[in-house]
Give the backbone structure.
Amino acid sequence: MQALTLFWFRRDLRLQDNAGLYHALKSKFPVLPLFIFDADILDKLDDPQDARVSFLHQSIQHLHEELQALGSSILVRYGKPSEVWAQVLEEFAIAEVYTNHDYEPTAIQRDEQVKAMLAERYIPFHGFKDQVIFEKLEVTKADGKPYTVFTPYSRMWKNKLNSRMEMPDGAGEEEAVSFYLKPYPCEKHYANFHQIEPLPVPALSAMGFHASTVEIPSSNVSRGLIKTYDKTRDFPYLLGTSRLGIHFRFGTISIREKARRAQELNETFLNELIWRDFYAQILTNFPHVAKGSFRPEYDRIEWRNDEKEFEKWCTGKTGYPIVDAAMRELNSTGFMHNRVRMITASFLTKHLLIDWRWGEAYFAKKLLDFDLASNNGGWQWAAGCGTDAAPYFRVFSPAAQQEKFDPEYKYVRKWVPEYGTAAYPKPMVDHKFARERCLEVYKIALKGV
Ligand SMILES: Cc1cc2nc3c(=O)[nH]c(=O)nc-3n(C[C@H](O)[C@H](O)[C@H](O)COP(=O)(O)OP(=O)(O)OC[C@H]3O[C@@H](n4cnc5c(N)ncnc54)[C@H](O)[C@@H]3O)c2cc1C
């Protein structure tokens, strides 16, 4: 049997500018790519038409075609990763394994398990940073501890980015690029893909899913949109943000390429990409956030957790039009604009006093761009219990937010056609009353802090 290097695709579904794949292709053995449809994850999804699974399947199909054009293929399996690995190690002579880092607690556990299986057979497992610009403890305070506040973190992030500028070969000075944003030229080494006949890709139906009809936002964003991003990004009725979230989530685009574009065109857009790194490092360095509040004293809050009220929030029937529009947009498209993510999250936690983890789980189920680190960070921010949180006494007024960010009710009219008619419900709770109730409950929980 021919000795092979195996490259394990996960959240990095592209052949271009892929750190781990680049290193795999430079190894001394031909490279066979692997993707596992993880039964541990898929079996927990309750919508057989989950758009993210469809997108994943399409992306794998696309990789399959690209690899076929290069005379190679991709090994695609469905099952529990440890069981799939046991089979793959029987079927192929694997000399080395390459992959990119994944920072979610369950992914880290999975990788440790696979690493141990490989170690028993003396097979090296190489991991690389690919999905963020800076990971783990690469950007820290002077004492080496991780930042927990965004502004100083982002300042240090930018200092580090600009501290190592390099000139690509033969380029003029204006083309100097940060070492950290340089692309990995995988294409120079494509000849090292293992040359084989196409391998079969399991059908969606074999895994219990069907193709979704939900439209996936394009991975091509115009320069014009990024250039004006700072002026348009706050208004949910405009197409003023990139909608690249799902592509970052599955790695169908390169973060380095988008960060170079952001650096060139719009600082505000770059800052948003830094938020993504910020929350990824928070999850890595403070993994307890995946289950509880970053500030543990907030776990003392006596949530009301009324299931009927939660249902009204989920279905967009709260009687607050901007909240309802946002929830209905989420339910029908899998997307929700950042401004209204903040408003709906604040409403659930502060107006209704429902545990932020209920909202976090609902978003995880519905968002195309669901990402544990950013979703958790966003929810903890809204509930006031997170790293860089809004102080708990700042309770968004839905009416004031409406006035500021959708003054002509364009967004509301699009998603709540019955708004302004007798069919639209009255507000489920009075704003002033809810605000005072929230302050009281938080105050009791945080007494003595
Ligand atoms: C309660 C709540 C839940 C959220 N859940 C998620 C989630 O599951 N997945 C997710 O990617 N983002 C999440 N966000 C952050 C943000 O709302 C989305 O990234 C953004 O709305 C996605 O739309 P876009 O791709 O058009 O972003 P753009 O505005 O075009 O920004 C470009 C990219 O920057 C990153 N980004 C932007 N804002 C943030 C932010 N505040 N935090 C982290 N990264 C950011 C994203 O990768 C985004 O795709 C959440 C925010 C809140 C308040």
Summary: The first strand starts at residue 3 and ends at 9. The two ends are 64 Å apart (CA to CA).
